[in-house]
Amino acid sequence: MKPAAFDYLAADSLDAAAAALSRAGGDGKVLAGGQSLMPMLNFRLVRPSILIDINRIPGLAYIEATDNAVRVGALTRHHAIETSPVVKAHLPVLTAAMQHVAHLAIRNRGTIGGSLSHADPAAELPMMALLLDARIAIQSYGGRRTEQARDFFVGSLATSLGEDEIVTDVEFPRLAPGTGWAFEEVARRSGDFALAAVGVTISVRDGKADQVRIGMMGVGETPLRAPQAEALLSGRTVDGALLDEAVASVRSVVEPNSDLHASGEYRRHLVGVLARRAIETAWRRAIGDLQ
Ligand SMILES: Cc1cc2nc3c(=O)[nH]c(=O)nc-3n(C[C@H](O)[C@H](O)[C@H](O)COP(=O)(O)OP(=O)(O)OC[C@H]3O[C@@H](n4cnc5c(N)ncnc54)[C@H](O)[C@@H]3O)c2cc1C
User: Fold this and answer.
1) Is there an atom of ligand 1 within 6 Å of 31 CB?
2) What's the whole-model pTM score?
């Protein structure tokens, strides 16, 4: 199919884009990489009156390390994040997750701002933002604000973004040196959206697990954390029995839907398998048993 007719504006500044979005009164859409928006337009799932292209706005595509964080501009392409030495040094779990995002051609166009704003429950970047406690900076005609990732994703393909708001950058707190990490995903074919995935980070203090974070995707309407399992692991040495407890806890808190690709029951089973692998690998990295 072809999209319904729309006007097109190539904005040359964030202010111009925000003003145009505000003028559109809820009927405008930001165009970033177009990798999700164009299919939605073609299927006429959305019919905006105007597309506001942000690709020519200078200064929106960058990755920079600050004293305690890594900041990523909204127009940064997936492939730039995947191959960034700064990301690899400070957020290796993000580097690993990016290798699972779609195919190279899509990673060359798709952007972090687009992925977070689109908020697919089986997309890697929203889950990474939640896992890593990212802060999302947002601009509208009325001003700027920031939002924590945990408050940003409110449903399947739904965020707290107002209809006149634009994501401008994302700040990920750096992982402390020595933090163990792992990312595990299963998709039907390489490059497909995940059936389920789990990301984990763990520190070690006095030989016990500390600062445990578990993120999950594909098993709910939004990316999820597993606070009960995180609490269960904290302050303990990870062994087979504890892994069994953590897996049971993870499975007990998810309510995955069934769809064409997999049943909810299969996804619940799968997320437990992936959680076990990811927790064990992150723990082994944290204790220096694995690079
Ligand atoms: C075949 C295929 C397979 C894919 N597989 C995966 C996968 O495995 N994992 C995965 O994570 N993704 C996957 N994707 C999606 C891909 O990652 C997209 O790049 C991403 O979802 C959207 O980014 P984009 O820059 O292309 O955004 P666009 O398509 O341009 O926009 C998406 C939505 O976000 C809004 N938007 C864009 N930028 C901003 C902004 N800065 N502020 C506010 N709103 C904004 C748009 O208005 C639109 O509503 C796949 C896509 C395809 C076509």
Assistant:
1) yes
2) 0.97
